[in-house]
UniProtKB/TrEMBL annotation:
This is Non-heme iron oxygenase ferredoxin subunit. PANTHER family: 3-PHENYLPROPIONATE_CINNAMIC ACID DIOXYGENASE FERREDOXIN SUBUNIT (PTHR21496:SF23), FERREDOXIN-RELATED (PTHR21496). PROSITE patterns: RIESKE. Residues 6-101 form the Rieske domain. It holds the Pfam family Rieske. It comes from the Bacteria. Coiled coil: none annotated. The keyword Methyltransferase does not apply.
Length: 107
């Protein structure tokens, strides 16, 4: 199955270090512009069923507002407890002013 990218927003809609929640095929995704790059990470914390897009972004990390676990926007790996499992990250493409994300997995 080929990777399918879907437009999620315009680049101009993203504010630096302010996550934007979108849904792609029923998958909640937090899209984040930080340090000049755009990242897409699953919006649900692996520790508790909480939206990561409501948390703070700093140093390419997104923090879960409920218990304080931080996740690397590049890898999805948690850097602090209580979360121990990574959350999925998704490939991003920028085409003009369009931000495209893929939640499909290549097989």
């Amino acid at each position: 199955m080929p990777t399918t990218f879907v437009r999620v927003c315009g680049l101009g809609e993203l504010e630096e270090d302010t996550p934007k929640r979108v849904e792609l095929d029923g998958t909640p995704v937090a899209v984040v512009l930080t340090e000049g790059e755009v990242f897409a990470i699953n919006d649900i914390c692996s520790h508790a069923n909480v939206s990561l897009s409501e948390g703070e972004v700093e140093d390419c990390m997104i923090e879960c507002w409920l218990h304080g676990s931080s996740f690397d926007l590049r890898t999805g790996k948690p850097s602090s407890l209580p979360a121990t499992r990574p959350v999925p990250v998704y490939p991003v493409q920028i085409q003009g002013d369009d931000v495209l994300v893929s939640v499909t997995q290549e097989s």
